[in-house]
Structures are given as structure tokens and as C-alpha cells.
């Protein structure tokens, strides 16, 4: 009897977590956004890609990790300090960890750690347009 109660409790917890993730994902997608993979500390050997959803909120690019219990964004990036330092195609097994057809951008900031963002062609166009639409007087170096 105790084993049945334990199994029922575990199944209930799994059902609640599955419902939480489903509702969170639907709510994030309704708010608009693009599928992107993000990697912080890209120069470290153990850094890995994390799938998520990116959304533009005024002067900020907010990123929500797919598998997270947080209700708010997991990372927030300010447009004013973000610069594209490099652009490349995914290499090796990276192609399996990022959205299909992705381009990887290395972004650096004076106020935050370096990151790499991988996104498909449509999302890339939107992201670069958002970065370039910064207020007048702000110079953005372009990566080749």
C-alpha cells in the first residue's frame, strides 16, 4: 500500500511539472518571440548550448530557457551595450544543438559576459535589424 501511494505521488508530481512546462511554453510563445540557442562563456571548454525563446522588449532582448521553472526571463541583454563581434556557421556537433539552419553570432558587451547566440535566417535578420535600429549616434561594428 505504501509503495502504491509513493508511485501515485511521483506520478502526480510528474503530471504537475508537465502541465507547468506546457503552460509556460504556450504563454511564452503567445507573447511573441523566436527560437534561439544561447551559450554563455563561449571561451570555456565546458560551455554548452541551451535552447530557448528570445523576445524583444523595447531596449532589451530577453531570453527564456525552454526547461526552466522561472516565470521571468533567464537572461536579459541591453541593446545599448551589445555588439556583434563575430559571425560563423555551427561547427561539428554544434549543428545538432542549435536550431536548424542557424548562424552563430558572438556578442560582446562592456557590461555583461560574452555570449553566443544561434538562430535561423529569419530570426537573424530580425535580431540584426533590432540591434541596428539603436538610437542615433550609436555606432555598431559589423562582423564579416
Broad structural category = alpha+beta
Structural domains: how many: 2
What's the overall average pLDDT, rounded?
A: 82
Largest sheet, spatial ordering of strands: 4-3-2-1-7-6-5
CATH architecture term of the largest domain: Roll
Say what oligomer this is.
Answer: single chain
Task: Write the CATH fold name of the largest domain.
Answer: PH-domain like
Total E-strand runs: 7
Assign an overall shape: elongated
Strand residue content: 25-35%
Can you give the helix content as a percent range? 25-40%
The CATH homologous superfamily of the largest domain is called Pleckstrin-homology domain (PH domain)/Phosphotyrosine-binding domain (PTB)
- Separation, N- and C-terminal Cα atoms: 66 Å
Radius of gyration: 18 Å
Q: Give a quick account of the main beta sheet: strands, pairing sense, barrel closure.
A: 7 strands, antiparallel
CATH C-level of the largest domain: Mainly Beta
Uncertain runs are: none
* Helix/strand order: HEEEEEHEEH
Number of helices: 3
Protein name: DUF2550 domain-containing protein
InterPro entries: DUF2550 (IPR019675)
Organism: Amycolatopsis regifaucium
Pfam families: DUF2550 (PF10739)
Amino acid at each position: 500500500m505504501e509503495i502504491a501511494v509513493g508511485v501515485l505521488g511521483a506520478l502526480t508530481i510528474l503530471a504537475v511539472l508537465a502541465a507547468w512546462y506546457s503552460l509556460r511554453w504556450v504563454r511564452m510563445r503567445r507573447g511573441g518571440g523566436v527560437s534561439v540557442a544561447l551559450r554563455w562563456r563561449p571561451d570555456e571548454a565546458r560551455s554548452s548550448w541551451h535552447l530557448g525563446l528570445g523576445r524583444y522588449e523595447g531596449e532589451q532582448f530577453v531570453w527564456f530557457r525552454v526547461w526552466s521553472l522561472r516565470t521571468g526571463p533567464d537572461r536579459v541583454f541591453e541593446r545599448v551595450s551589445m555588439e556583434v563581434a563575430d559571425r560563423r556557421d555551427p561547427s561539428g556537433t554544434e549543428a545538432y544543438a542549435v536550431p536548424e539552419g542557424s548562424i552563430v553570432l558572438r556578442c560582446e558587451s562592456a557590461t555583461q559576459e560574452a555570449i553566443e547566440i544561434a538562430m535561423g535566417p529569419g530570426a537573424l535578420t530580425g535580431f540584426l535589424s533590432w540591434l541596428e535600429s539603436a538610437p542615433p549616434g550609436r555606432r555598431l561594428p559589423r562582423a564579416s
